[in-house]
């Protein structure tokens, strides 16, 4: 018996060594952790339960019978993050470059199926040279099986991808279908075709980092949601994110202990909005002052900064925040900001996370690049996402809410539950100057008359009361009491149930 037990231990030790000490040292030499070290940091200490440690590939081509490493280049299983269950796979670059064989893919599929059946998130740590070249179409079939699970799991359990090495070719499409993608600066990249192919086809000379590194994907393409300095930081941030999320679509978001008075008054908010309507202010200040303990988890911080998206807690419960940012492009809506916010709104709605919308929006960005780029279609995504969202929706207009953008930003007309405005709100078709130049075009040569018309328009519309008289604004509230009002509004909506008409699925403008 002793021998049998020690054989198991020996086999386990062998499997845990992956591709061997030399390759582990090389991995460390690149500033990267191994697949198992990453899992250890991601999960609660001692909580990891592994599956399929001894699985090997079945390929017999190109001398592959000679190398059959236990585990086949991916470590899979489940564990807990702050006591809550998650499933995880972590590709092991030290074993055949983490390349994906049929059996490697089957291991991932197994834990994804279990995650869906048991209602727990899937976290995928990607570090792979792509399809196992020796396996050919068997490898592609394996990828196809994983993609299909990504699609099936979408909206059922949260899926998070962490890119910690190469991720190229068709392999990128698994992370692309997950809810959040995190990357590590300087040691990870994602692209459909690499620099060599790019050079051959388009004659562009570009490094892997420039083409598909963390900076590119968080600042330019918006493929990734966050970029972190190293593996340790990225994994700590995944843990923080998971704390905000429900485990599945049938469970409410977690309720955490909180030590911040929900009725906390913030007098400084009474002077947040400057007197001059053209002067910007930082909307993040409002978010931080509303949040329990000032804790804000921002998503896509470096992309389309004219809109802010992320999670806070109110009375310990997760709330998704969407807010125009007057500091960037005056908080205007455009293609990028509409896409960014629409995806975030839809994530929150999938997983029963209530939505808080903070509005200061002068309209949509004009210009040929916006129109040629399809701002009509992309702007419609946000409108559509808010309209179809059935989670509790609370909106606060702090200043401008002009034109179509007023309707888009979770207005009453899209079935928002509470629409508050600060006394500084201006709900109108457009700003007073623009309005005057159109309706009093004949007086354009007379500055005095124009000034008077502008003032008349401001007096009539540069306030929240016209909308409040019609019930489009439920209450005009004091800025200093916003946290209390918003927290009470969400508390009153905890049992909200709203149904949409039956449909197979909708046809959101893509
Ligand atoms: C089999 C692979 C492999 C692969 C790497 N290895 N990628 N084995 N299939 N796809 C092996 C290497 O042979 C090497 O083995 C070990 O992993 C480490 O690789 P290195 O090249 O030494 O590492 P590095 O210099 O860091 O380069 C990493 C790399 C490079 C850039 C990823 O390995 C590479 O270009 N690999 C091929 C990438 C590729 O073309 N993949 C197919 C893409 S198409 P030894 O034993 O020598 O240490 C694809 C389609 C997916 O993925 C479609 C989905 C539908």
TrEMBL record:
PROSITE patterns: COA_CT_CTER (PS50989), COA_CT_NTER (PS50980). GO terms for molecular function: acetyl-CoA carboxylase activity; propionyl-CoA carboxylase activity. PANTHER family: PROPIONYL-COA CARBOXYLASE BETA CHAIN, PROPIONYL-COA CARBOXYLASE BETA CHAIN, MITOCHONDRIAL. Belongs to the AccD/PCCB family. Residues 264-504 form the CoA carboxyltransferase C-terminal domain. Residues 1-257 form the CoA carboxyltransferase N-terminal domain. It comes from Aliishimia ponticola. InterPro entries: AccD/PCCB, AcCoA_carboxyl_beta, ClpP/crotonase-like_dom_sf, COA_CT_C, COA_CT_N. It comes from the Bacteria. The lineage of its organism: Bacteria, Pseudomonadati, Pseudomonadota, Alphaproteobacteria, Rhodobacterales. It holds the Pfam family Carboxyl_trans. Keywords: Ligase. One of its GO terms (cellular component) is acetyl-CoA carboxylase complex. One of its GO terms (biological process) is carbon fixation. This is Propionyl-CoA carboxylase beta chain.
